[in-house]
Sequence to fold (222 residues):
Amino acid sequence: LNNCTQHTGLRCKWQWEAGALGMASVWTLLLLVFMNALKIGKYGLLFVSVFLTFLKFCLIYVFIWIGYIIAFHMLFLHKKPQFTSIFYSIPKTLAMLTGEYDFDDLFFPNGKVLQGSEAAMVLYSTFVFTMNIVIMNIMVGLAVSDVKRFRLNAKREHLRARIETCLGLQAKFGLLCETCSRLVLALSKLRLFPYFQNHVTKIHGIKKYYLLKLLSRFELIT
Fold:
């Protein structure tokens, strides 16, 4: 923080932007935490599965989208402020992909036909047919097939994710946890902790029991 921020409490633009991106990222990652910790986490796995499918889909068809972005930018460069730069054309074309057409505003501003917009109308009609009708129906079909396939294997996939989380934590922090648990067990055997010994012994076996329980349930399902 600079001196102005320390004295006035005002924040710079980049601080607000970083804070906003950080909040969005943290709350999104919270879904991944609940996904492996709760019984309803299978719906979080469903979100991840559909998201990855859409990501693979977009990697193939992104070239068509880029082509329409450049084409709209070239045709409306000096006519519409939404397409004055490539940076503005990207979110505008993405909004058009979701159904925000703005046909009247684009081609009939103030009730009059936009001059020299014949080629833009042809391109616009092609965009609506290819992107909004064909590709959106493909995306809906992929989502439905993913949901159907996931519901058949939801319990197994959820257990697999929880087991992977437990094994990952054990691989990263297993030595530290084992050292701490041995230290606590050694202290519990002293006379200073007679009442604490039974509770520590139970806690020491919780992680192994929980992991073995998950593995046995996974073997029964598979």
In short: The CA atoms of residues 167 and 174 lie 9 Å apart.
